[in-house]
Specification:
The chain is 3% helix and 53% strand. The longest helix has 4 residues. The protein has one domain. The chain is globular, with a radius of gyration of 14 Å. A hairpin with a 6-residue loop joins strand 5 and strand 6. It has 1 helix and 8 strands; from the N terminus they run ββαββββββ. Strands 1, 2, 3, 4, 5, 6, 7 and 8 form an 8-stranded antiparallel sheet that branches.
Amino acid sequence: MPVESLVCADTATRVSSVLNRDGKQFGKRHMFDGSEETCWNSDQGTCQWVTLDFPRTVKVSQLHIQFQGGFSSRLCTLQGCRAGEELVKISDLYPEDINAMQISFQVEETVLDKLKITFGNSTDFFGRIVIYHLGVLGERL
């Protein structure tokens, strides 16, 4: 099967926080809108996260992410589960603190309905994370 984007309009997305609670300017939807001008900007605090509840079961194989340099995470922990189950760790990823799209994250192919990405060890002193693009690729089952 060809690899495709798994995030769609029916994917339920949650984030740990939004800068100044200003969802209009810094909300989660900006990670998926394809614009280079918009982003999700977390508020300060350790251990920011994003969860994705897919409308149907998927097999995740790749993660693409574009941080704002200086507001990235040195460690991303992926957890996933099937509907009704507890989250289990899939893998740890170690992004670079750069502005460019990072597309080299191959994920151990995992069948799941929910994915949680936890951003530990922020490069920002206050723990903020800024993401311009988040892509989860794989196949729909």
